[in-house]
Design goal:
By secondary structure, this protein is of the alpha/beta class. The protein has helices at residues 15-28, 45-55, 69-80, 99-109, 132-137, 161-167, 180-190, 218-228, 245-251, 257-279, and strands at 5-11, 32-39, 59-64, 85-89, 93-94, 112-120, 145-147, 156-160, 194-205. β2, α2 and β3 form a beta-alpha-beta unit. It is globular and about 65 Å long.
């Protein structure tokens, strides 16, 4: 029988974090299947997952012989996901009681594409992994949930299968990591959906334990993102999206700023090479 929720998690070493995450996941989540996509771990993660797979009847594992990156790995998980809801959760997070129930409430009330809990980092007001649940209980927000492009975090985010059927899966040109989440949220908004953050639940994030290794890709992926969506800067603001954004984006179909921007980037590279040649 298919579960309500399919959770996709990528692993690349960091076994200590993975164990804490999975313990938290099974403690605070029900009616789900877990799909782990391992990107060629070498630290004992594979042996751990094999042992866990024998214990858990709701666990599926995909083993890659090389690091496929964030987008490709999640797309592999999407292909075998059976749930109505699909979650993308990092292996370096801890969850909060009833987190999915509160997120599901938003989908039932709003035309939502992506919903995440509030994000807590280890250095956030000196909180830590042992105290974050009690710490978050002291937070008071005016709204139970709200639209927010930036604060809808793909370290822990839920969508629905029918949303992905409409907007598509991850763009694998964002490799191995960075800006693929913004790309997904932008496409969702252009399709008429909202992206939200829930103010009544949180997740604790140890903080880019894997993706920090790929900072050299940040600038290249950012350039590709803005080449695709020159007006994406209008979404880099917490709170509700600007109402005129969708109207403006339609004008791009007649005035291809993305092509102009791509040409500009190419010319920058050419000029840089010419300058280097002259200096020699």
């Amino acid at each position: 029988m298919a579960k309500t929720l399919s959770i996709i998690t990528l692993t690349l070493n960091n076994l200590e974090y993975t164990k804490k995450y999975i313990e938290s996941l099974y403690r605070f989540t029900s009616d789900f299947e877990l799909i782990v996509v391992d990107n060629a771990s070498t630290d004992g993660t594979v042996d751990y997952l094999e042992t866990l797979r024998l214990e858990k009847d709701n666990l599926k594992v995909i083993y890659n012989e090389e690091n496929k990156g964030f987008s490709k790995g999640n797309n592999q998980g999407i292909e075998i996901a059976e749930g109505e809801y699909i979650g993308f959760l990092n292996n370096d997070i801890l969850l909060y009681p009833n987190w999915f129930d509160k997120i599901k409430d938003v989908f039932e009330k709003e035309n939502a594409a992506f919903v995440s809990p509030r994000h807590i980092k280890p250095d956030f007001n000196l909180t830590n992994e042992h105290a974050y649940i009690q710490y978050f209980k002291n937070f008071k927000y005016d709204k139970l949930y709200e639209k927010s492009f930036d604060e809808c975090e793909f370290s822990c985010v839920i969508t629905k299968k029918d949303v992905l059927d409409k907007i598509g899966v991850f763009d694998e040109k964002f490799s191995p990591a960075f800006f693929e989440d913004n790309d997904m949220k932008y496409r969702a908004i252009m399709a008429g959906y909202g992206v939200y953050v829930v103010n009544t639940v949180c997740f604790f994030h140890f903080g880019s334990a894997t993706s920090i290794k790929y900072n050299n890709n940040f600038e290249a992926n950012r350039a590709y993102y803005y080449a695709k969506y020159p007006l994406a800067e209008y979404l880099s603001i917490s709170g509700e999206e600007k109402g005129e954004l969708k109207l403006r984006s339609k004008h791009l179909q007649d005035f291809p700023l993305n092509i102009i921007y791509e040409t500009y980037l190419i010319w920058l590279k050419v000029l840089k090479r010419i300058k280097g040649f002259i200096q020699k």
